[in-house]
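Q: Predict the bound structure with zinc ion.
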Amino acid sequence: MARDALILGIESSCDETAAAVVRSGRTILSSVVASQIDLHRKYGGVVPELASREHLRRIVPVVREALSGAGLSLAGVDAVAVTSGPGLIGSLLVGVTFGKALSQAGSKPLIAVNHLEGHVRAVILEALAAGREPALPTLCLIVSGGHTVLYSVRAATEGAVEAVPFRYERLGQTRDDAAGEAYDKVAKMLALGYPGGPVLDQLAVHGDASAIRFGEPKMKGNPYDFSFSGIKTAVLYHLRKHSELEPEIQRRRDAMREQRLRAQELLPLCGRHTLDLVASFQRAVVTGLVARTLSAAEQSAARSVLVSGGVAANRELRETFESESRRRGLEVFFPSRALSTDNAAMIAAAAYPRLLAGEYTGEELNAEAVLPLA
Ligand code: KG4
Ligand code: ZN
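A: Predicted complex:
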């Protein structure tokens, strides 16, 4: 196999239908993402049945657009890579089935990719494009609406970072909600729309983060595990106790029924107390994420830190990681907004070392809702 390889990646594990062409794990030739956020917004979360139906509708045009954007036909790619898990089973099946069909129709090798490995490779892909290279071993925090997990990542062999297979050791994970899920649920309680993360992030700067104290979750066992349901419940109890906030919440709920409001439009509908609550919630989430990640980095002798997934877009999370990592002499890497959320460029990049190693799959490939990264 020539080292210069074009891989078509396909991703459909949750609520984004995506396809991309990446050259040799380094260069994105095209990346198309069809988001379903508008479809799921009125339910305040992803509805699995609607998601798989929408993937079915979008997958053919999305793949076609990715190929044409790269100036290719199926004949021009060296392999087809597809996310086989973890994720929503009905959603995954659409991508897996379509990937199999393409690989057979075009007589191309089929490569199965773990979605979480995709998030790790997304950060590396962009760092390389910017002329930076994360030092290995690295510690990766994947933090999204579906995952909050810490992996120690090592190179399994010598070679260029985009071409070597990785070995993963899971050091910690959430015991209940994912961080993004907590953002979405708190936004729902406060009638601030869906998804909650971006709005809460923008409103938080207007509040006092030290106004309301949320205790650190007391957890026995693994010190690198996360828990967010305690903070979420604390917000709920706070709202119950402060029923004077209810009319304001109702006003926002009514306004949101008319039309979707952005953070700037929601700001005048939020009193000081609400803004303080939002800022304090965000401070508690960010502090917990950064503290555990950096102590896991120390314990695993990581030489860099990668942060990936939708919540990696969070402004306070980035700033806190930047300053805290600098103090410890660790370099921290984030993907751009486009590559922090689900996309297929990360799947194509993750497939490159497998293509070089001849790790192909075939008709037997199954979608797996639960798929640990090894
Ligand atoms: O990775 P992603 O697009 O989808 C998966 O969950 O796989 O992540 C979406 C999650 C949502 O929960 C959303 O509220 C959260 O990421 N999110 C944020 C921000 N932007 C998106 N959370 C906090 N701050 C943000 N700026
Ligand atoms: Zn994801």
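A: The pocket of zinc ion (ligand 2) is lined by residues 115, 119, 144, 309, 342 (CB under 6 Å).
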